[in-house]
Amino acid sequence: MTQVILCEKNDIAAATSSWSTKLIHGGLRYLEHYEFRLVRESLKEREILMNMAPHLIRPLRFVLPYMRGMRQKWLLRLGLFLYDHLGGRTRLPASSWIDLRQNQAGHALKEILTEGFEYSDCFVDDSRLTLANACAAADLGAEIHRDCAVLSLEKLSNSWKVKTSKGTLSTKMVINASGPFADHVLSLRIGSQIKKHIRLVRGSHLIVKRLFTHKKAYIFQNTDGRILFALPYLDDFTLLGTTDIDHKGKPNEPKISQNEIDYILKELSQYLDKPISKAQILDTYSGIRPLFNDGKQTAQTVTRDYVLSWEIDSEKSWLNIFGGKLTTYRQLALKVANMVSQKLP
Known about the structure:
Oligomer: single chain
């Protein structure tokens, strides 16, 4: 008897799971917002995922140039010290100070940038990682239904009647793991009231021809306190991003705005010896972060942590997943399994 059915309205990894910045990382910037538990969990998961999927996840060294007027040097040192030690790092090299005048990574930067730091995180093929998890679930007996949109959900006495684009299903429990579509799925429940649990935050990226001869990545501090990455991508390209913009439209097909393009190019021009022109942009893509709506004023300060909650606590037959990030997907899944076992031992 089938115990788990996945209804995916498009293809596996069709949306946010393939539109990320392609990183398995602890989230160095999250330390500024005192999200130490999230950073620790992410760093521990980084080590585990490297062992689980070495064909999809590879170590990547990041260069953080020191720019006067941005974060103080002592603050960067402290943040990197915590980053090195919070998560039980064993495989990746520790952070270090570098002389950009002597280091190859400094050649593409402006001459005023003379020093900085290096630290380690990982690059991931996000689409294939998502697909690998779906295939593993199928091997264990789950039914994976692609191109199968959920149209309505009706609570019966001891089950849920789920109407989909491919027919009707009956299930004891609904797990709403639909990312940026979580509020939409909630609205499909017959008799439900509209609630807003998710804050849609768009992250956009540019793809240009390879900018650097070395294989290191960069993390740049922006004038507004945010950061930008420049990552080696598919051998011949460089991936630039990402933004943090409240997304006002539907989550189906997010598109980069002209303001986002201008923002990325302007911020990078502070650092790169040869500024990037719009003519160099080969492609763009945008993803929607399904962040838990914690009431914070600006998009970049909204928590990247996840929230798991029963829709009707007394029944424990509908479990919502709000927020979360790619790096911690496995821990999130374990916690979901533990919550499900309360109802279905």
